[in-house]
Structures are given as C-alpha cells and as structure tokens.
Design goal:
single chain, 174 residues, alpha+beta, Protein Transport Mog1p, Chain A, seven-stranded antiparallel sheet, three-stranded antiparallel sheet, 3 helices, 30% helix, 39% strand
C-alpha cells in the first residue's frame, strides 16, 4: 500500500511539473526597466499604442482594430511606503470615485490580495453598464512606487482576464 501511495505521489509531482513547463512554453517574458512579467504567447505588444513608459498588449491579429480588448502595464511613483498600502488604496478609490461622480451606470468594486510573488495587489473593477465596458485595474504596491496593469474589455472575454492575472502574478520588481 505504501508503494502505491509513493507511486501516486510521484506521478502527481511529475504531472504538476509538466504543467508548469507547458505554461512557460505558452508565455513570453518581458523585461522592462521596472521589472519583468509573463504574457501569453498569442498576445503581442502593440508598438503603435505603447510609449516609453506604458506598454499595451492585444490578442495577435487584433492590432489594427479600432477598439480591441487590451491590457496595459506601466510604472508609477507615489508618496506612500509599502507599509502604508491601505492609505494608497484609499487614495486610488477616492480618485476613481471623483472621476465617476455624477455619471450613471458606472459601478466600482475593490478588493485586495497578494500576487504569487507575495506583493500586495489592489484590484479595482469599473463596470460601465451603458457601453458594456469593463476596466480592471491591478495596482501592485511597492515602496513609493506601483505597477498598474489595466485590462479594458469592450467585448466579453475570459481570456483577457486570465492574461492580465498571469501578468500580475508573474510580476517581479527589478
């Protein structure tokens, strides 16, 4: 019986390792001045829309669409150290609330968690019911700095959310 459990455990470990390896085959790692992150291979950096400080990604083949679902990532600085992350979150939420004040059909949801690398991440979901647009902002908190990964969904797609979450969870500061 012990041998059977050992064999089963070895099989599960090997299968899990193969899944991790397969996942890495399906992603490209991007190294920028602020850190690195992984993006699914069928998503490409849109050079046309990217700048020196903000990088846009779209599903391959949709680079020329007028309003493609997209994900952007950029680095920013702020006046908060990492331990003051809750004050930072409140400041972002206040700013978002001011931007939508008086507009109908817009809803904000907020929550906090950690990335797979242990960084604090705050997620803000802005739903525009009139235009059926969903914007999700992921703020990865650092000392006096942050990374904003923002997905904008014009046409419902679970893939966009999965690609953005992969970027968030694979992000590593330089």
């Amino acid at each position: 019986m012990k041998k059977l459990w050992f064999i089963l455990l070895c099989f599960l470990c090997i299968t899990g390792c193969d899944e991790v390896k397969d996942d890495r085959k399906n992603t490209n790692t991007f190294n920028k001045s602020f850190g690195s992150y992984e993006v699914q291979k069928n998503w490409v950096e849109s050079k046309e829309h990217s700048t020196a400080n903000k990088f846009f990604y779209v599903l391959e083949g949709q680079e020329q669409l007028k309003r493609p679902n997209n994900i952007s990532i950029n680095y920013g600085t702020n006046k908060y150290d990492k331990e003051s992350h809750e004050i930072f979150k409140t400041a972002i939420l206040s700013q978002l609330s001011m931007q939508i004040a008086g507009k109908e059909g817009i809803e904000i949801q907020a929550n906090g968690s950690n990335t797979d690398n242990g960084d604090i991440v705050y997620t803000f979901i802005i739903k525009e019911t009139k235009d059926n647009i969903v914007t999700t902002q992921y703020y990865i908190v650092g000392d006096y700095k942050y990374i904003l990964i923002q997905e904008t969904v014009f046409e419902q797609s679970e893939e966009v959310d999965n690609v953005a979450k992969k970027m968030v969870n694979s992000f590593k500061w330089k």
